[in-house]
Design a protein that fits this description.
alpha+beta, four-stranded mixed β-sheet
């Protein structure tokens, strides 16, 4: 990894699948390395480590990412891809900006 501090997301043995999914949605993204334990990937230059940590910790809303994009169609494209067949904790139309 290029930076000394980066995000690590814990998955229940699905780190590569998650990295592949996220890289398919965000432009300028790629998988950097893959091992049985972890997958390193970049989303538009942001480095993330996906760890195959097991089921001890579940995904929560305690982490979030903000993606600045324009136009609205691009925002909707990414949102629709991210929530397909998933449960959302917050609908996109509930987000308020000032």
């Amino acid at each position: 990894m290029k930076t000394p501090i980066y995000q690590c997301l814990w998955f229940d043995n699905l780190a590569n699948e998650a990295a592949t999914f996220y890289c398919s949605i965000f432009k300028n993204s790629k998988i950097v390395t893959e091992t049985p334990v972890a997958t390193s990937f970049e989303l538009n230059g942001i480095q993330i480590l996906g760890l195959n940590g097991g089921p001890m910790f579940q995904i929560t809303s305690s982490i979030s990412y903000t993606v600045n994009c324009d136009p609205t169609a691009e925002t909707n494209r990414m949102w629709d891809a991210l929530i397909e067949d998933m449960h959302t904790m917050m609908e996109i139309d509930k987000i308020k900006t000032e």
